[in-house]
Amino acid sequence: MDVRLQTEPFEPGALLAGFAADRRETGAVVSFTGLMRAEGGRAEALELEAYPGFTEAEIARAVTAAIDRFDLQDVLVVHRYGALTPSEAIVFVAAAAAHRRAAFEAADHLMDYLKSRAPFWKRSRGPDGDRWIEPTAQDYADAARWDAPAIKEPPKETP
Amino acid sequence: MTRVLMFGMLGDVAGWRERALTDVPPTLSALRDRLAAENPRLAEVLARPGVHAVVDKIMVRGDVALSPGCEIAFLAPMSGG
Fold first, then answer.
1. Whether A114 contacts chain B with CB within 8 A
2. CA A125 from centre of chain
3. Which residues does B contribute to its contact with A (CB < 8 Å)?
4. Which of A52, B8, B19, B27 could form a disulfide with A121 if both were Cys (CB 3.0 to 4.6 A apart)?
5. Is A32 among the domain residues?
6. Which residue of A has its CA nearest to B56?
7. What is the nearest CA distance from A50 to chain B, expressed in angstroms?
8. How far is CA B47 from CA A49, B12, B33, B36, B76, in A?
9. CATH assignment of the domain containing A63
10. A122 lies within 8 A of chain B by CB
11. Is B25 among the domain residues?
12. Domain contains A139
């Protein structure tokens, strides 16, 4: 597991190539890259505040839980903070597992966590001034999908 | 040196994001009282649901003792990345 918080830009392709290299027992690597949208000109820049030391530790806790839940072999999370401009990559998540379903689900799950519950504070700078951005109702609903206990098999019918 | 940090919109309400304290209140609630006395609006937002306190990078619930040299952070509701 590797969780990185950084102000410097990153190159998603290089991260994926490095993460996927030399894995003899891995059957699936799923990666996700989140980019900053321009919102049709309404967002000129994004200021992402983090609490270095605390933010990585909290993300690492969520990653540890995901490794256990989805039986993952490895996870890489790279998250930027500081000033960002449209088209820049903000977040990269990659999950490695023996089989594809676990890797897909883990990447989806970790992104839902990162988008709504990770310790970041987001402020957009636009022509109308600065405003703090909170997770959308959809972000909360996406994250809540993972809170219900996973159903492993259909309930048995009573005779 | 004891530091107090404010994250997200809490920093805007406080008017500062980091402050060094020379005299450390004995408890987190005493620190809250001191901050409230100088800025009632900050007291109101610090009491909102979703606002968390962190001492030495560990989230705390309720009141805890503070020691000289510790770092206290107040976190606005987290917005995710």
1. yes
2. 23
3. 5, 7-9, 54, 57, 73, 75-81
4. B8
5. yes
6. A54
7. 8
8. 21, 16, 11, 10, 10
9. 3.90.1170.40
10. yes
11. yes
12. yes
A26 assigned to some structural domain:
yes
Amino acid at position A11, single letter: E
Per-residue pLDDT of chain B (81 residues; tens, 9 = 90+): 899 999 999 999 999 999 999 899 999 999 999 999 999 999 999 999 889 999 999 999 999 999 999 999 999 998 877
The ipTM, to two decimals, is: 0.92
Residue A36 lies in a domain: yes
Question: Is A51 within 8 Å of B9 when comparing Cβ atoms?
Answer: no
Confidence of residue A149 (pLDDT cuts 50, 70, 90): low
Chain-chain contact of A116 with B77 (C-beta, under 8 angstroms)? no
Residue B33: give its domain's CATH number: 3.10.20.30
DSSP codes, A28-66: EEEEEEEE---GGGT-SEEEEEE-TTHHHHHHHHHHHHH
8 Å CB contact of B80 and A135: yes
What DSSP element (H or E) covers A106?
helix A100-116
What total of structural domains would you count in chain B? 1
Nearest CA in chain A to B18: A51
Pull the structure tokens for residue A129: 């001034």
Number of domains in chain A: 1
